[in-house]
Structure formats: structure tokens, C-alpha cells
């Protein structure tokens, strides 16, 4: 055997230069792109700051207090029998206390509109079961209450109506 038979060849190295060039070009283009970007021009809206501040709407919760309606409302419904409902409500904080205290002494002006609202809820085609009825009834009762006790200063004094008790005999 000769020395030529034992020569070990080294593996060829992969050319690294093209990878370095590609990385430098990519990094350079990326860096130049960031440097070339400028901050957007501020958006100018017509109107003064005072006008814009006056137009801002407060999205916070409406100040409220909670009261309960002093009597139970009873309605006879063929589908569910006699329905007895107790309700509470969230009223606007600015509604005078004497208005809600008047419910205790004279609730007659409210019982007819509330009974009509309950009948409208019962006759609603979506009221297929008591759960659906409990969902449909509060907005109708709220609108009925607001129709009776609203003023020019407070067109919608009743914010929400809550069904506290719903009993049926059918």
C-alpha cells in the first residue's frame, strides 16, 4: 500500500458568503424600511375643543336607586292561569322621592298601564314559555311606568324593571 491510498480528504465547506450577503441585504432593507416610515400626520377635525368636549357622551352608568312596587299585579291568562307578579325597579337618582313614595299610597294610576303591559307580553308570539315571558315583560313594564311618571326633565325615569316574583296557577 502506498501513501496515496491513505489520504483522507477533508469535506468541502459550504460557501457561507451567499448566506451572509442575503442576511445583510435583508437586515439593511428591514432597517431602512423602519427608518423611512414616519409618524402619521395628526388628524385635524373641524371644530374647537370646546365644541368637541360638549359633544362627548358620558358612557358611565346612569345614577340610580332601587325601589319595589308596593303591590302585586294579578292578571288572568288562559294559557297560564292566574299570574301574580311582584316587581322592583331601578329609577333615575334625580326622580323625587315623593314620586316613588306615592306608589305606597296611590298606585291606581299605574295598575292599569302595568296590567296592559303584562297582557301585551303574554300575547306576544315570542312568549312561548315562562322564561321567554320573563325576558319580554320588563321592557314593556318599564315603558308603561315611564308613560305615567315621566316629566320633561326626566323623560325616562324608570331605567330597568325587575321581576322579583312570578307565580302562576295554571
Descriptive notes:
With 170 residues, this protein is of the alpha+beta class. The protein has a domain at 64-168: 2-Layer Sandwich (Tetrahydropterin Synthase, Chain A), CATH 3.30.479. Helices cover 42% and strands 19% of the residues. It contains five helices and four strands. Strands 1, 2, 3 and 4 form a four-stranded antiparallel beta sheet that branches. Helix 4 runs antiparallel to helix 5 (130-149). The longest helix is centred in the first third of the chain and has 20 residues, at 17-36. The chain is elongated and about 115 Å long. The protein starts with 16 loop residues before the first helix and ends with a strand. The mean pLDDT is 80.
The stretches of 5 or more residues where confidence is low (pLDDT under 50) are none
Total beta-strand segments: 4
Classify the helix fraction into a percent range. Answer: 40-55%
Shape verdict: elongated
The fraction of residues in strands falls at 15-25%
Tell me the radius of gyration. Answer: 37 Å
CATH class of the domain at 64-168: Alpha Beta
Looking at the structure, the CATH topology of the domain at 64-168 is: Tetrahydropterin Synthase, Chain A
H/I helix tally:
5
Outline the biggest β-sheet.
4 strands, antiparallel
Assembly category: single chain
Secondary-structure element pattern, one letter each: HHEEEHHHE
Span between N and C termini? 111 Å
What would you call the structural class?
alpha+beta
CATH architecture of the domain at 64-168: 2-Layer Sandwich
Mean pLDDT across the residues is 80
Amino acid at each position: 500500500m502506498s501513501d496515496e491510498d491513505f489520504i483522507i480528504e477533508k469535506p468541502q465547506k459550504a460557501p457561507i458568503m451567499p448566506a451572509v450577503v442575503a442576511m445583510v441585504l435583508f437586515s439593511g432593507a428591514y432597517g431602512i424600511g423602519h427608518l423611512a416610515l414616519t409618524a402619521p400626520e395628526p388628524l385635524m377635525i373641524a371644530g374647537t375643543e370646546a365644541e368637541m368636549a360638549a359633544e362627548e357622551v358620558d358612557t358611565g352608568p346612569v345614577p340610580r336607586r332601587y325601589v319595589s312596587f308596593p303591590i302585586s299585579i294579578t292578571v288572568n291568562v288562559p294559557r297560564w292561569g292566574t299570574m301574580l307578579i311582584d316587581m322592583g325597579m331601578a329609577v333615575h337618582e334625580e326622580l323625587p322621592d315623593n314620586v316613588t313614595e306615592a306608589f305606597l299610597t296611590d298606585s291606581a294610576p299605574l295598575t292599569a298601564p302595568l296590567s296592559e303591559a303584562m297582557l301585551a307580553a303574554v300575547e306576544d308570539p315570542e312568549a312561548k314559555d315562562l322564561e321567554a315571558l320573563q325576558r319580554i315583560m320588563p321592557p314593556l313594564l318599564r315603558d308603561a311606568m315611564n308613560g305615567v311618571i315621566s316629566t320633561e326633565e326626566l323623560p325616562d325615569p324608570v331605567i330597568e324593571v325587575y321581576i322579583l316574583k312570578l307565580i302562576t296557577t295554571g
